Amino acid sequence: MSIGQVLDQQALARGDANRLFAVGRYQVIPSTMNAAVISLGLDRNAAFTDAVQDRIFSDYLITRKRPSIRNYITGAEGATLRSAQLAQLALSQEWASIANPSTGKSYYDAPGGANHAWITAEETANALNKMRDQYRKAIAEGKTPDQAWAQINAQPAQTVAPDPASGDPMADGMLVQGEQGEAVKAMQEKLGALGYLGADGKPLVADGDFGRNTRAAVEQFQRDRGLEVDGKAGKHTLEALGAAQKAADQAPRRPRGRRSYARRARRRRP
């Protein structure tokens, strides 16, 4: 597949069966792919090879888009705790499966919600330090900074990037119709627990598939909360959903018998 074909399929409408989202060994999302092609001057007709993907990772993703990662590896800002934390944070912002060092959860998880990160902050710290040590060794051997950088990225640089697993639907921090996975299922469970129904008027089924019923439930939740009604579960919608579930869990439950008695009493009044 050529770079241009990848771009064209990533640009298809959400829900299109032929649409690509996170692609390649570094799970590059559409906006990042487009920016990388422009920034690096990549030829649309060139094949989307492993070498091209490695270049996107080392020369764009962790250099131009997330410079704090390269700065830490090369020691540009010194070996400080702050520079290490910034590098880890940048990784968590790029890949939802990598834990935010401040919270231990995915950067895109709503407060009080489930943790969708499966790569810990400790693991990313170890990976960053490994690349940093390799860079220092190359410099000590007489390599120039550019040569040292090229050397540590000569092999797949997946030491600090997640394996291309299932195409994490939370990679861009938003859940939309057509996506599937545990993040979708967790959202459906919250909506269902709050009593939201699908487009068919039935209780929402938590099957991990973001279809028309889930979209209808998301839209109704957004209306109820005064949010933009677009049927997409982005940062604000997921935060509001997490807060609503937490409030519902903490709310005192009125005994069902007393409520029924009160209703019967009201009906008996003249």
From TrEMBL:
InterPro entries according to UniProt: Peptidoglycan-bd-like (IPR002477), PGBD-like_sf (IPR036365), PGBDSf (IPR036366)
Gene3D superfamilies found in the cross-reference section: 1.10.530.10, PGBD-like superfamily/PGBD
Region (Disordered): 230-270
Classification via SUPFAM superfamilies: PGBD-like (SSF47090)
Basic residues compositional bias, start-end: 253-270
Domain Peptidoglycan binding-like: 180-241
Biased composition (Low complexity): 240-250
UniProt-recorded name of the protein: Peptidoglycan-binding domain 1 protein
Organism, as annotated: Pseudoxanthomonas spadix (strain BD-a59)
Phylogenetic classification of the source organism: Bacteria, Pseudomonadati, Pseudomonadota, Gammaproteobacteria, Lysobacterales
